[in-house]
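Exam revision sheet. Question 4 asks you to relate a sequence to its structure. Input first:
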Amino acid sequence: MKLVAALTPTVIDSIARPAKGTTKKLTDGAVPGLHMLVKDTGRRYWRLKYRLHDEEKIFSIGVYPETGLEQARSAARDARSLVKKNIDPNDAKKAAATAAYVAKVSTFGLVGREFVDLKTKSLAPATARKLEWMYGCLESLHNRPIGEIKTQDVLAIQKAIQAKDHMEAAHRVGQFAGRVFASALRAGFIAANPLAGAKLGEDLQPRRNRPMAAYTDPREFGQLMRWIDTDTSRSANVRHGLQLIARVALRPGELRQALWSEIDLVKAEWRVPASRMKMRREHLVPLSRQAVAILERHKAVSGSGQLVFPGLRSGRPMSDAAMNKALADMMVFPEFHVVHGFRSSFSTIMNENGHDSVLIDLQLSHRKRDKIAGIYDRSERVPERRKLLQDWSDLIDRLKEEAGTDRA
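Answer key, structure tokens:
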């Protein structure tokens, strides 16, 4: 076996440039397979020859003198260690380069910007502005690689917001950051969401109670309904529940605990029993064509059971928080709209469209003290209420269509 002497800096520096059109190869005896390729331009390249899976391959290490002799040997030894593990060093090098590039370009600001731009395409203007504001609250993180940001970094920003007496905003900014991290995780920019399970709210002051909120501007309400329809990440149970409650103007508890036996899809009627109504009297809900269509679709989801909207636990209805959480996940925050707010949306928009206010209150099952209202209650005015809810569903469809063409 012929021994090959190890290269030295003196030997390397004394190498003459090879003739034009030729190359010269100097083998280093210190690390098997390591050699220097000298080109007719005078440039000198470190290479490692190795075999993997019965195939001879070449691994590029660097250019001399930028990559020195000892540095080349160290890299060659590392590459050979990978080969012993049946790992191709060329593949490992590409993966490392990709990871380094991703870490460099995937800052919190860039990932967050993409997330905001995607969501605001369909959000109501007021909600979109809120999303932009929360993105701005996290500006100190914008230029940092998203994989380097820790839970404490976000919490520090939340506490600074809290110090300005913005309790609700402090909580919401943390939730927004968590959604950006979740988006980055799905895209492969990070290996784990640092806020998953962090429960940052426990280190903040509690939210203050706020009155129930609702979108009552027709344009914003149409965008809300469009967002609900297009957000296919929701379970059918939740999505259908939101679509339906907007059209029947019931209270959340009255809808969540619905039984299929209360609903007659042929007659297009839903009789909510007195035991579940706030006023403790049976309430008739005439179903619009759109409401019937929603329920017919939902039959495939829960039609085999008693509950229309079953929960995760057997025999229990969908939880009280499920639909509100879905709205919050869509960045429709409780300061703007809650599930109970659909009743206010119906009342305000239909009143402003010139519909009979007494009829609207009757459909909302509001108790009336005056004698005339009592007469209306006894007669129920079912045909008029049926038309009212059909007009309402038709209006929702028009508002959704308008929202689809209005991005201002």
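Marking note for examiners. The chain has three domains: 9-104, 108-203, 218-405.
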